[in-house]
Write a structure and sequence with these properties.
Elements: H1 7-23, H2 26-46, H3 49-82, H4 85-119, H5 126-155, E1 160-163, E2 168-171, H6 174-179, H7 181-211, H8 216-251, H9 253-259, E3 271-278, E4 283-290, H10 293-299, H11 309-320, H12 329-356, E5 363-369, E6 372-378, H13 383-399, H14 403-417, E7 422-424, E8 428-429, H15 440-471, H16 478-481
Antiparallel strand pairs: 1-2, 3-4, 5-6, 7-8
Helix pairs in contact: 1-3, 1-14, 1-15, 2-3, 2-5, 2-7, 3-8, 3-15, 4-5, 5-7, 7-8, 7-12, 7-13, 7-14, 8-9, 8-12, 12-14
Length: 502
């Protein structure tokens, strides 16, 4: 029982819970900002009302999401002082640099322009107002990159030296931290997955409305935008995942071997579809494998040698001293598969949706069903086929909303747990990063408080999103359709209170 309630274990659980919860909002924030900007751009260029209504609808959901993301993200910063003070003391000089850039450049950049966008609908010319939401989108991407650069340094530390006299790591090359291949490949993969998430979110909600034959013009457009986004982002996620896997193979061979439950090195190495074994004895009892595929994924060669868990563990014992350098194998193995499975399921649904809606899609028509003529949304040209398949299509399209969120969560869990027992790979072990003066009771108390608070916030978030999703796109006012042509709007309205977009 003492081991289960050790401060290190509790601190890891707390950080894991808060991080995974926060990361539900991050991909949606990044993608919805850009997708909303794209829809507003379409309105500015075409002046079609459906684009403006769609912009206001998705922009409202974006604002709810980013507000919750900011609230939950603040907690992450505090935990470095609460539960991980030895980590902060040892590597704060390096880890804090990209986080400082994220706060000083990206976050303030993002928050300034989001304020202008929220309150500037009737105060700013539409092109300047449009530029504000694009600046917000750029800010979210910059924010994500700086944070991913910090995390990538934990995965593959570069640009530093150890000051033995002071007992801490010191930054020597900030540019190397920002531009190393780990940061670049991880950012590529994370941003691709973010747009897969936003596209699926848009598809799911659009399908919900279209199945009920509501807001057809706006939701038809949103569905198409979402499907295209899912298809492109899904392809990029697969490509970037392959790139990141090759980087991982070179930098963290233990994580690669754990992801495949490959206990002993093989040439060629198989890709494991399913495996069950004995972790203590270090072997699989049951394994369903594709020969040579892991070698190709790791090294672009179907005959390359891939070291196994036992091989890497022995090598790290010789390099770093006695100990068990294996992560939680079942979590790494299944987390890797759930990440890929749910992510690629979204991609497949996106491709299927594009094919099904390629001709005359979603046209409201009246079809004869038995003795009655009923309204129906034609998915594609063959009306009979559309009548049979469209209910299934709407249901599956709505389900896909959650798939990337699940994939993102397991991808993050795999990334972080697969690095264990290292907080900073090869430099600082997790057991040495915990705050030494924090007791089990203190960590347990804060974990319960944060988890309970996040559960309440989850209820609030779901209720807010559900309320505004069901309401659909708002009705447009004269001010919406005729924005000012100069900054500040009509001077006759100077004494009016500032209008909030929603």
């Amino acid at each position: 029982m003492e081991l289960a309630l050790a401060p290190e274990t509790l601190a890891r659980w707390q950080f894991g819970i808060t991080t995974v919860y926060h990361f539900l909002f991050v991909p949606l924030t990044i993608s919805l900002a850009a997708l909303t900007a794209g829809l507003q751009t379409a309105w500015v260029r075409t002046e079609k009302e459906k684009y403006l209504r769609a912009t206001k609808f998705w922009g409202k959901l974006f604002l709810i999401n980013i507000a919750m993301g900011v609230v939950t993200g603040i907690v992450q910063e505090f935990q470095f002082g609460m539960n991980w003070s030895d980590y902060s003391r040892f590597v704060g000089d390096i880890f804090g640099a990209p986080l400082a850039f994220e706060a000083l450049i990206a976050f303030f950049f993002e928050s300034t322009f989001i304020g202008l966008w929220i309150f500037g609908w009737d105060k700013l010319p539409k092109k300047i107002h449009l530029a504000c939401i694009w600046m917000v989108s750029i800010g979210t991407i910059l924010s994500a990159y700086f944070i991913l650069a910090a995390n990538s340094w934990m995965q593959h530390p570069v640009g530093y030296k150890i000051d033995k006299a002071r007992g801490r790591a010191e930054l020597t090359d900030f540019w190397a931290v920002l531009t190393q291949n780990t940061a670049l490949s991880q950012a590529f993969h994370t941003l691709s997955a973010a747009f897969l998430t936003g596209g699926a979110f848009m598809v799911g909600i659009a399908a919900y409305h279209l199945a009920r034959k509501k807001h057809i013009r706006e939701m038809k457009t949103s569905l198409r935008v979402g499907l295209v986004t899912v298809a492109i982002a899904g392809l990029l996620t697969a490509v970037s995942g392959d790139t990141l896997g090759k980087v991982m193979f070179k930098q963290q061979p233990m994580k690669m071997a754990s992801a495949e439950a490959l206990w002993d090195g093989q040439k060629p190495a198989p890709f494991s579809i399913f495996a069950y074994g004995d972790v203590e004895k270090g072997h699989n009892t049951v394994a369903i494998e594709i020969p040579g595929l892991l070698s190709f994924l790791a090294d672009d060669n179907f005959t390359s040698y891939v070291p196994g868990i036992n091989d890497v563990n022995k090598a790290e014992q010789q390099k770093f001293g006695p100990g068990d350098y294996r992560p939680n194998i079942p979590v790494a193995f299944w987390g890797f598969r759930w990440m890929i499975g749910f992510g690629m399921a979204s991609f497949a649904i996106g491709l299927a949706g594009l094919w099904l809606t390629r001709k005359k899609f979603l046209l409201p028509q009246h079809l004869r069903v038995g003795e009655d003529e009923v309204p129906h949304l034609v998915l594609f040209k063959n009306k009979a086929l559309s009548t049979k398949l469209s209910p299934w299509y709407w249901r599956i399209a709505t389900w896909t909303l959650a798939f990337p969120l699940i994939a993102n969560s397991w991808g993050w869990i795999f990334t972080e747990t697969g690095r264990q027992p290292w907080a900073v790979y090869g430099v600082l072990q997790t057991r040495d990063a915990v705050s030494p003066g924090v007791s089990q009771g203190e960590v347990l108390t804060s974990m319960i408080v944060f988890t309970s608070l996040y559960a309440i916030l989850a209820v609030i978030e779901v209720k807010l999103l559900t309320k505004y999703v069901k309401a659909g796109p708002p009705e447009l006012t004269e001010a919406d359709l005729n924005p000012p042509t100069k900054i500040g709007g009509d001077t006759r309205d100077a004494d009016k209170p500032m209008a909030f977009s929603y």
